Amino acid sequence: MMTNEELWKAVLGEMELSLTKANFTTWFKNTLILSKDGQSIVVSVPNGFIREWLQNKFNKRILDSIRGFSPEVREVRYVVGTPKIELKTTPKPFLDRDLEEKVIPDSLKDIDKYTNLNKKYSFESFVVGSNNELAHAASLAIVKNLGKLYNPLFIYGGVGLGKTHLLQSIGNKISAEYKDSHVLYISAEKLTADLIESIRNRTIEDLKNTYSKLDLLIIDDIQFIAGKERTQEVVFQIFNELHGKNKQVVLSSDRPPKAIPALEERLKSRFEGGMIADIGIPDFETRLAILKLKMLEKNQELDNETVTYIATNIQKNVRELEGALNRVIAFSQIYNKPPGTKEVKNILATYLNNPYKKASSQVVLKNIADFYNISPSDLIKRSRKKEIVRPRQMAMFLLREETKLSFPEIGQKLGGRDHSTVIHACEKIKREENNDESVKQELVMIRERVYNSFDK
Ligand code: ADP
Ligand code: MG
Questions:
Q1: Which residues of this UniProt protein bind ATP (predicted)?
Q2: Could you list the residue range(s) of the whole structural domain that residue 350 is in?
């Protein structure tokens, strides 16, 4: 008799042979047999999208493959979720996955280690429409008159509308045109983390010194420093120093300076002292143009009807527009033919049906695990190691705060722990949040990630 683990490994082996590596990884990464009960097998998958695909497109192939090893099996069900039961006895698939997740994604390799700039963002790859005309024009203008025209340039707008893209384009353009220039792109989140560390190491003067040498400082998502007094203090100092020397500062935020809560008045007035430009939601023409440009970049063609369907239905977020396009392209590659209208509808269903997602426990757990550089399954394990216990307590606390789960349900999600354990953890972290600045920061950072991942 094969164990579930051996059986799934054998099935995966067959799947791997019949698919391209990229497709195999896309559809079968992080899957495993959760249980086998006579004729029926339950396979756990990482998300609803993959469940749909395995169910609708791969089910027959998977079932045939399973029956090659276990002929008694009649049906396979796919469930979304973190496996609990198997973990204690067979942690192997997770070790494999852990390794895989440590591999640096391609997109990170393109990041310059001095400027933090990613070459893929350029003015050439930015589509100008009525929604971003002003922000785009202002960005070009400061490239031509660095530090002399609008200082700071403050760009604001909703998630996924191209703020980072524009900011990075400015940085890349300046770096390319002036080889000796000192440019730094940094997210306010990273800046805050750097600050905390330099305070701890007593190197804050070095840090300020480095910043004071810049010709162009770009801080992305500046709203993140709201409520963080120490960070605001240092940002204020750095800003004044650079501004006083006519060195350019560029900032982005999800809202205008006035509307950022818990931001000191003196910073608000500094941020308002240059040019403020907003980016709005792209109109249909712009969405279409963006899709066409992205297809060119990816060297992929889709028929007009499909492209129009995507542009018509995904309106509020360019990142989602691109994500939708990628899914449709993935379909074409797997089946070697473009999807029909009905299939396109299916593929995009996740975007169309959930315009506003809530934090799910999965999102919370995934972000906590990422944050602490462990795997989500570690949170569920029976481990008492300090590196695990602490994140697990954070998980309990944040599940309580960010989802509607009850104490017993949270215990259940985290490997069947008692509700009193959960209550204890929640009280402990709450106390620390109130009394310990660094814990407070830590929680802000994790929350930020959670919120960002369900905006996408
Ligand atoms: P934000 O920082 O506002 O959340 P991003 O700059 O990260 O948004 O944009 C999300 C994605 O959409 C990126 O891949 C970006 O390249 C793309 N994008 C946004 N606006 C445009 C545009 N006008 N032209 C081309 N690509 C865009
Ligand atoms: Mg951004």
A1: 160, 162-164
A2: 299-356
Q: What are phi and psi of 47, to 5 degrees?
A: -155, 170
127 lines ligand 1 (CB under 6 A): yes
118 lines ligand 1 (CB under 6 A): no
What is the domain count for the chain? 4
- CB under 8 Å to 401, separation ≥6 — which residues? none
pTM score > 0.70 for this model? Answer: no
The protein residue whose alpha carbon is closest to atom 19 in ligand 1 is 162
Residues 452, 456: Cα–Cα separation, whole Å: 7
Nearest ligand, CA 223: 2
Ligand nearest to the CA of 326: 1
| CATH number of the domain where residue 338 is located | 1.10.8.60
Are 103 and 158 found together in one domain?
Answer: no
| CATH assignment at residue 421 | 1.10.1750.10
For residues 152 and 249, state if they share a domain: yes
Instruction: Based on the fold, state whether residues 365 and 352 are members of the same structural domain.
Output: no
Query: Quick check: CB of 287 below 6 Å from ligand 1?
Result: no
C-alpha span between 18 and 22 (Å, rounded): 12
Is 48 labelled a binding residue? no
**In this structure, which residue's CA is closest to atom 21 in ligand 1?**
162
Q: What is the pLDDT of residues 10-64, one digit of tens each?
A: 999 988 888 777 667 777 888 899 888 889 999 998 777 678 778 887 899 999 9
Q: Please tell me if the CB atom of residue 159 comes closer than 6 angstroms to any atom of ligand 1.
A: yes
Per residue in 101-157, pLDDT tens? Answer: 334 444 555 789 899 999 999 999 999 999 999 999 999 999 999 999 999 999 999
